[in-house]
Amino acid sequence: MSKILVVDDAEFMRMRYKKLLSGEGYEVLEAGNGQEAVQIYEKEGPDLVLMDITMPVMDGMEALKELISRDADARVIMSSALGQERVVLSAIKGGAKDFLVKPFKPDNVLATVKKHLA
Q1: pLDDT tens per residue, the chain (118 residues)?
Q2: Beta bridge partners of residue 49, listed in sequence order
Q3: What is the rounded distance in angstroms from the CA atom of residue 90 to the CA atom of residue 115?
C-alpha cells in the first residue's frame, strides 16, 4: 500500500489524518515542520505528501520548494485554513499537485489522495 507523509505542526491534525488514512490501509509517516518533512522524504521516499502551509522552523511553501528541487516528480498536496486564492495559486505554481482547505472533510481528503495515487 502507498506511503503518505503528513506534515503539520498541530499534532491533533496529524492524528486526524493518520486515523483517516491508516483506516484506508495507507502507511502514514508524520513530520511536525517542513525541515522534518524534507529529511523524512529523503529517507523514506513517500508516494504522497500532505503538507500544511503555516508551520514553524520551515513553512510548507519553503519545504515544497525544497522537495520539488530534489524530486521534480514529488506529489505534494498542500493544506491550510487560509483558503485564499493567492495562497492556493502560489502553492500550485510552486509545484503542489492539489490543495485542501481545513477543516477538511474526510471524503474530500480520501478522494484527493486516491486521485493523486492512481
Answers
A1: 899 999 999 999 999 999 999 999 999 999 999 999 999 999 999 999 999 998 899 999 999 999 999 999 999 999 988 667 678 788 889 999 999 988 889 999 999 999 999 8
A2: 5, 76
A3: 21
DSSP string, 63-76: HHHHHHHH-TT--E
Q: Does residue 27 contact residue 1 with C-beta atoms inside 8 Å?
A: yes
Phi, psi of 74 (to 5 degrees): -55, 135
DSSP state of 83: -
SS3 88: helix
Structural domains of the chain, ranges and CATH numbers in brackets: 3-117 (3.40.50.2300)
What backbone phi and psi angles, to 5 degrees, belong to 69? -70, -30
pTM for the model: 0.93
